[in-house]
Design goal:
Elements (H helix, E strand, L loop, with lengths): L1 H38 L8 E2 L8 E7 L7 H10 L5 E4 L1 H6 L1 H9 L3 E4 L12 H19 L5 E2 L8 H9 L3 E3 L15 H9 L7 E5 L6 H16 L3 E2 L2 H5 L3
Parallel strand pairs: 1-6, 2-3, 2-7, 2-8, 3-4, 5-6
Helix pairs in contact: 2-8, 5-6, 7-8
The structure holds zinc ion.
Length: about 250
């Protein structure tokens, strides 16, 4: 028996080496793919959130640049119909133009975040200018809703050391969006494109970027119910960014 066993091992030994090499290669590929998949969702700066690692089947929908009379109330209605909440990163100046809409957002259990007072590119301004703008937006939101925001989405998604410092000084945590979940709806790419940009890569803990202001948001408004229905069927729940951050 021993002789037979030794012969068998010798006979197959070269293949085992090959099998081991193939296995190691596969494991390496999986590891590499997983690390790639994670990095494709967002950056690694601990002061910024792009997504949340969670096992819960939840996503956070976010809307920038509002409130706008022609789109925000319609979006709120759609969200309510689907028992969904979302986060609205509002512009201070727009809040002053449409205070009732922001009040409605709070009434509907949405989260309201800071998107600056005047939609300035924070990375191109000084620290004192950034702080002044962010404070003004915080104060405007507080005056209208009674709530001081804790989250900041920077216009154009830009940031640098100065922006990070300004956010810290105004007690705001920067929230971007998952890189695979940028609808680019501001460019009106078509309802189907917006829908597929969200649905084709969605993962638990993702933060999806839409706009409820800036220009005509008809496509966003048409895409939203399709996205909500599909994700609900897949077992997803919709939470605000602050709720999502507690689920990691
Ligand atoms: Zn914006």
């Amino acid at each position: 028996m021993t002789g037979f066993f030794t012969v068998s091992i010798r006979r197959y030994y070269p293949y085992w080496k090959l099998v081991l090499a193939v296995l190691l290669f596969i494991v390496g590929m999986i590891e590499w793919h997983q690390s790639e998949a994670v990095s494709l969702r967002g950056g690694t700066n601990p002061q910024i959130t792009w997504y949340v690692k969670t096992t819960h089947k939840v996503v956070a929908l976010t809307f920038d640049d509002g409130p706008w009379k022609s789109s925000t109330p319609k979006i709120l209605h759609i969200l309510k119909t689907h028992h969904a909440v979302a986060t609205f990163f509002v512009i201070g100046q727009q809040v002053l133009r449409n205070p009732q809409i922001v009040q409605q957002e709070i009434h509907d259990k949405m989260e309201v975040g800071n998107h600056t007072y005047s939609h300035i590119n924070l990375a191109r301004h000084s620290l004192s200018e950034d702080v002044a703008d962010l404070k003004k937006a915080n104060e405007t939101i507080k005056k209208v809703t009674g709530i001081t925001p804790t989250l900041l989405r920077t216009p154009y998604g830009t940031y640098n050391k100065v922006v990070l410092q300004a956010a810290q000084m105004t007690h705001l945590h920067i929230v971007m969006w998952s890189w695979t979940e940028d609808t680019r709806d501001w460019s009106n790419p078509g309802v189907e494109t917006i829908v597929s940009r969200v649905l084709s890569h969605i993962q638990p803990g993702d933060i999806v970027l839409f706009h409820d202001g800036g220009s005509n948001r008809r496509q966003t408004i048409e895409a939203l119910p399709i996205i909500l229905k599909d994700l609900t069927l897949r077992g997803y729940r919709f939470v605000t960014v602050s709720q999502l951050m507690k689920m990691q």
